[in-house]
Design goal:
The complex is a heterotrimer of chains A (about 650), B (about 100) and C (about 240).
Chain A lengths: L2 H25 L5 H26 L7 E11 L14 E8 L3 H24 L6 H20 L3 H19 L6 H32 L4 H10 L3 H21 L8 H4 L5 H10 L1 H11 L6 H23 L4 H21 L3 H28 L12 H4 L1 H15 L5 H16 L1 H26 L16 H16 L9 H8 L11 H26 L7 H5 L1 H7 L4 H48 L6 H20 L1
Helix pairs in contact in A: 1-2, 1-4, 2-3, 2-4, 3-4, 3-10, 3-14, 3-19, 4-5, 5-6, 6-8, 8-11, 8-12, 10-14, 11-13, 11-14, 12-13, 12-18, 12-23, 13-14, 13-17, 13-18, 14-16, 14-17, 14-19, 14-20, 16-18, 16-19, 17-18, 17-21, 18-21
Chain B lengths: L4 H21 L3 H26 L3 H31 L13
Chain C lengths: L1 H20 L7 H21 L3 H26 L11 H24 L6 E2 L3 E5 L3 E6 L2 E6 L7 E3 L5 E6 L4 E7 L8 E3 L9 H11 L2 H21 L4 H7 L1
Parallel strand pairs in C: 1-7
Antiparallel strand pairs in C: 2-3, 3-4, 5-6, 6-7, 7-8
Helix pairs in contact in C: 1-2, 2-3
The chains are: A mainly alpha (about 650), B mainly alpha (about 100), C alpha+beta (about 240).
Chain lengths: ~650, ~100, ~240
């Protein structure tokens, strides 16, 4: 087998292996726990090895996508069916094709790496759980779907896998489905995602009708080639509609409400899905189709991202559940990434995505260790003094927190400053918001670390009963190392240069935008240190939260997440519930009552009436005959 | 005024309706039968009138046949009434309702 | 004179017919039978007015003589008493009246509206015939009728020898004899009007030539009726004797 064939088919194998594992587990092996776990880990582990191989061997090779088979072919596109100014395309083929360019390879690496680490972590975390096999089956299925998104080469295929990811996240979030809260959270996630997906699909259709193609490779060419009115008229709308999908999947404002509730799922799930991969799918998608966004669309995208970043950071300040703090933090960082794309910096966005995957997964897994060790206690005010009992975990967690805050020289610093630089170049107001949000980020992370890990232990159990095993600690360490090193470049090799090359942009640190570069660096650093300091001052040795007293009303709003859930529930009650009542009434009275029962009743009554005619009396029959004759004559003669 | 076809036809119709009335109102079987005879006669009258006013003898031939058939029918009908009377001992048509649903 | 006779006979017919059906004085079936006889006799009179002499005679012979007698025999045999008074069903009776009246009204209406114009015959003798017109003399009056060219105005009679045409404008008609076998417009012979249709003679001729098959079938029918009557009215004496 030649190297070319291997490289050609390797993405397909990487994609299908988790699917095979999921199918086997869910169909046949649900009784065998160890076998299921082994299959799952093996599938994703192989994927990791293969991804590394691809990444290393292909490097910067900008190969185009490879088509494996045509799934659906819609004839020869009729010229009249498209917009009058649309280009002449041969036919619309929905191909099952896999994209194999540097961006895909990078994402492949991210997904499989975090996936493998989470799988290993789960071996220990979920031990003793009843749905062990089911969990690993769903996890494998999720990996398959996510890889599908990363590897797909056209919008339709990406949409299909998009939906599959939604389904898998639903399965995983409501893993403990006996808990009503978990089941509700799963539903909420899926439904909110769906709302975004409607916009996404409409956007895809608009793009296809105006440009005639849905393949990523040819999108750019088509736009350049057809600088025509047909496209420019709807370009902004199409772009915004596609962005809707990202709003749903990456939990931007206003569809952010599902992510905190999704913390009902097991912690490794949160680490994988809601930190590193699924929520990043939205950002990945808008980076992929970056060429279709017009400046107006980008403006709106940037502002939505900025609002999300700020809002989520503020909400995180007053949360007491450790997982929820991390969830809001994820929301905030996603807002940063989206803002970066809006400021025409997709490379900065992807850079931050990569580093975020590392340190957020680290933070979540660390939280998982803590939860596991302390009887599933999640309130930070009941923790404290964990640095004594879980030293390694504490160290890793602190590294992750510092990376998130943008502490200099850690990976988060580089990526966040890349974003701030883009913001500075684009719009100073956005820059300001970004800096402020960075400050708040550092503040709440310091709060979290101090309250949970340092100080006196406030919970009931002074000793942790479950010591974390090696399977849990090793992933933490690996991720900690990555959090530190991902931002570094060595002789032009690093994450950042790869990305910059992809969009032919200049990487962060380049000398051309000196002012912006400096502003970003200084601003970011000051924000980080200020936040950390503030946090230190307020929360050192705090027994309970002092902020509500100081900030009063604002703190209450923050704690209650600015009442978004209540708003949506209210809207829902006034629109959808009314409609469903109307529909129910219609079904019950009109269709069932009038239609079904009415028909049968009418037939019944008619039968009873007709029965009266059969008297058995000759004279009655004669009378009826005459009457009939009368009618017929009247009909004919008049 | 000239007696024309319409006059005879009107007489025929009224006679027919009287016969029909007889069938529907009277309860004795035999009188009902007489009503039937009236109806047949009305038809005969109409036919003869047509025959006369159209100068066509076919109408009269038909009347001839009708009279014949009516006679046969009366014979058989009365035989039936006799048999029915022997079975049910009643002449009232309202008592013969065994076909009631 | 004939009009007066018509009115007398028709009134008699209708009155007696009504009394057959609806007699306020007596509910005896024999009364109804008697009035039926009277009805038939009046109808005979009407038949005579319509110049159907043979049929009038047949009517009296067969109907009044045989059928009604048969009715009376059966009434006597069954000893049919007066109809008992039962609960007077108002609704049924009223409906019956209404229906029958409605029927009568509709048909009379139609008769009145009929598009066939009332044909007034030109009675009289044909005195002169030419290829274009016919002159008819009636009580000293001579009317001239044109022979139409258009065949559609000609009503063709049954036996193909007599052609009877009608002048559409004046609504008068006359008998003209055309021999349609030869050439349709040729006038062969004229026939007198005014006399009767020669009806017994004509009737017999028609009966035994054109309608001979129905004639035979009717005779068969009479045989069947006779057999049926005998069977139906037989007492089951033999069976009763056997079971005893």
């Amino acid at each position: 087998m030649s190297k070319e064939t291997v490289i050609l088919n390797l993405p397909l194998v990487i994609l299908l292996l988790p699917l095979l594992s999921a199918a086997l587990i869910l169909l046949f092996f649900s009784q065998y726990r160890r076998l299921s776990a082994g299959l799952s880990v093996g599938a994703v582990g192989f994927g990791l090895a293969a991804s590394i191989f691809l990444f290393v061997s292909l490097g910067d090779d900008h190969s185009k996508s490879d088509t494996f088979f045509t799934w659906l072919s819609i004839g020869h596109a009729d010229q009249n069916a498209l917009l009058p100014s649309a280009p002449d395309v041969e036919s619309l083929d929905f191909n099952f094709s896999l994209q194999n360019d540097p961006l895909s390879r990078l994402m492949l690496l991210v997904v499989t790496l975090v996936g493998t680490l989470v799988h290993v972590f789960s071996l220990a975390y979920m031990r003793g759980d009843e749905g062990y096999s089911r969990y690993f089956g769903a996890l494998s299925f999720f990996v398959f779907s996510m890889l599908g998104i990363v590897l797909s080469a056209n919008l339709i295929m990406m949409f299909i896998f998009w939906e599959l990811v939604g389904v898998s996240s639903y399965l995983l979030i409501s893993h403990w489905f006996e808990k009503p809260a978990a089941a509700d959270a799963g539903k909420k996630a899926f439904i909110t995602n769906r709302i975004g997906d409607v916009g996404f699909l409409l956007g895809i259709l608009l793009v296809w009708s105006a440009l005639g193609t849905i393949h990523f490779d040819s999108l750019g060419e088509q736009i350049v080639r057809n600088n025509n009115a047909g496209w420019t008229a709807i370009a902004t709308i199409a772009g915004l509609l596609i962005f809707c999908g990202a709003v749903g999947k990456s939990a931007q404002f206003p569809l952010h409400v599902w992510l905190p509730d999704a913390m009902e799922g097991p912690t490794p799930v949160s680490a994988l899905i809601h930190a590193a991969t699924m929520v990043a799918a939205g950002v990945y998608m808008i980076c992929r189709v970056f060429v279709i966004f017009t400046p107006e669309a980008l403006e709106i995208i940037a502002w939505i991202g900025a609002i999300t970043a700020l809002l989520a950071a503020l909400m995180a300040v007053q949360q007491d559940d450790i997982k929820r703090i991390l969830a809001y933090s994820t929301l905030s960082q996603l807002g940063y990434m989206v803002m970066a794309v809006g400021c025409s910096g997709p490379d900065a966005s992807m850079f931050h995505l990569t580093t975020h995957a590392a340190f957020k997964a680290l933070l979540f897994l660390g939280a998982g260790v803590v939860i596991y060790a302390y009887h599933h206690e999640q309130d930070i005010w009941k923790m404290g003094g964990l640095s004594k009992t879980l030293p390694i975990t504490t160290l890793c967690f602190v590294i992750g927190a510092l990376a998130l805050s943008g502490f200099p020289l850690l990976s988060g610093f580089f990526s966040k400053d890349a974003i701030l630089m883009q913001a500075y170049l684009h719009n100073k107001a956005l820059f300001g918001i970004g800096v402020f949000a960075a400050l708040v980020t550092a503040f709440y992370m310091m709060r979290c670390v101090l309250v949970a890990f340092y100080g006196e232990h406030r919970g009931e159990h002074a000793e942790s009963d479950m010591k974390p095993s090696g399977e849990m600690i090793v992933p933490l360490i690996i991720l900690a190392i990555l959090s530190v090193t991902l931002g570094w470049e060595y002789q032009g090799h690093g994450v950042n240069p790869i990305l910059a090359d992809l969009w032919e942009l200049e990487s962060f640190g380049h000398e051309t935008h000196k002012a912006a570069h400096n502003a970003a660096m200084i601003g970011g650093t000051i924000a980080a240190f200020t936040g950390l300091l503030l946090g230190w001052i307020i929360y050192k040795d705090a027994k309970e939260d002092p902020l509500p007293a100081k900030l009063g009303k604002l703190a209450k709003y923050m704690r209650n997440r600015f009442y978004f859930d209540e708003l949506y529930r209210f809207l829902n009650r006034w629109t959808q519930e009314k409609m469903s009542f109307a529909a129910d009434w219609f079904d019950r009275w009109i269709i069932s009552g009038l239609g079904v029962k009415g028909t049968s009743g009418a037939v019944d009554i008619t039968g009873c009436l007709l029965r009266l005619f059969q008297t058995g009396n000759v004279q009655t029959y004669a009378l009826l005959t005459v009457i009939g004759m009368l009618f017929i004559l009247a009909l004919i003669l008049f | 005024m000239n007696i024309s076809l319409e006059h005879y036809l009107i007489v025929s119709v009224i006679l027919f309706c009287l016969g029909l009335l007889g069938v529907m109102i009277r309860r004795t079987l035999i009188v009902m039968f007489m009503g039937l005879e009236l109806m047949l006669n009305a038809a005969n009258l109409a036919l003869v009138a047509f025959s006369h006013f159209r100068d066509n003898l076919d109408g009269q031939i038909m009347v001839f046949f009708i009279i014949t058939v009516a006679a046969a029918e009366v014979a058989v009908g009365l035989a039936l009434i006799v048999a029915l009377y022997r079975k049910r001992q009643t002449n009232d048509v309202n008592d013969l309702t065994s076909m009631k649903l | 004179m004939q009009d007066l006779l018509f009115y007398i006979f028709s009134t008699l017919t209708l009155l007696c017919g009504l009394l057959v059906v609806f007699n306020p004085f007596s509910r005896n079936p024999v009364t109804s039978a008697m009035f039926l006889v009277l009805t038939i006799i009046s109808m005979s009179g009407l038949f005579v007015l319509l110049k159907a002499f043979f049929l009038a005679a047949v009517q009296i012979l067969v109907y009044a003589g045989a059928v009604i007698v048969l009715f009376l025999f059966v009434i006597m045999l069954l000893n049919v008493k007066e109809e008992e008074r039962r609960r007077f069903q108002k609704f049924g009776t009223f409906l019956g009246f209404a229906a029958v009246t409605g029927l009568a009204v509709i048909i009379i209406n139609t008769i009145g509206q009929s598009s066939a114009p009332s044909i007034s015959k030109t009675q009289g003798n044909v005195v002169q015939v030419s290829t274009e017109s016919i002159a008819i003399e009636n009580n000293g009056e001579i009317t001239e009728l044109e022979i139409p060219d258009d065949k559609s105005k000609i009503l063709v009679m049954t036996n193909g020898i007599q052609v009877y045409f009608k002048d559409v404008q004046t609504n008068q008609h006359a008998f003209v004899a055309y021999d349609t076998r030869v050439e349709s417009e040729k006038i062969v012979k004229t026939i007198r009007l005014g006399a009767g249709l020669g009806e017994t003679h004509g009737l017999g001729k028609l009966l035994f030539t054109k309608y001979v098959i129905p004639f035979e079938i009717v005779s068969l029918l009479l045989l069947v009726a006779m057999v049926g009557c005998i069977l139906l009215s037989k007492r089951d004496e033999l069976k009763e004797e056997e079971t005893e």
